[in-house]
Amino acid sequence: MFVLSHRIPAEGSKSALFNFQSLLLVILLMICTCTYVRAVAPRLVDRNKAGFLGLFFMSARIGERLSPYVALACVAMAVTMIAQ
């Protein structure tokens, strides 16, 4: 017999949607991953330019066109994660 208990998460464990730094980290990782996947297998990303899957295409374009700024944002995020 299993007893289901309602567990309340600790104050420090929040979803990435409610923690701004985690949200930025998820967005940066998505941009970097989509850019890499588009460089390796362009047909995989390019075939979905509209709809929900179009977010991956747009993320790849941001990574390609703004790569110096994305790289600086990744370095800044790494420094803030190490400093914590």
Automatic annotation (TrEMBL):
InterPro entries: KISH_domain, Ksh1. Keywords: Golgi apparatus, Membrane, Signal, Transmembrane, Transmembrane helix. Its main location: Golgi. The keyword Methyltransferase does not apply. The chain crosses the membrane at residues 20-45, 66-83. GO terms for cellular component: Golgi membrane. It holds the Pfam family DUF1242. It is a single-pass type I membrane protein. Belongs to the KISH family. Involved in the early part of the secretory pathway. This is Protein kish. It comes from Suillus plorans.
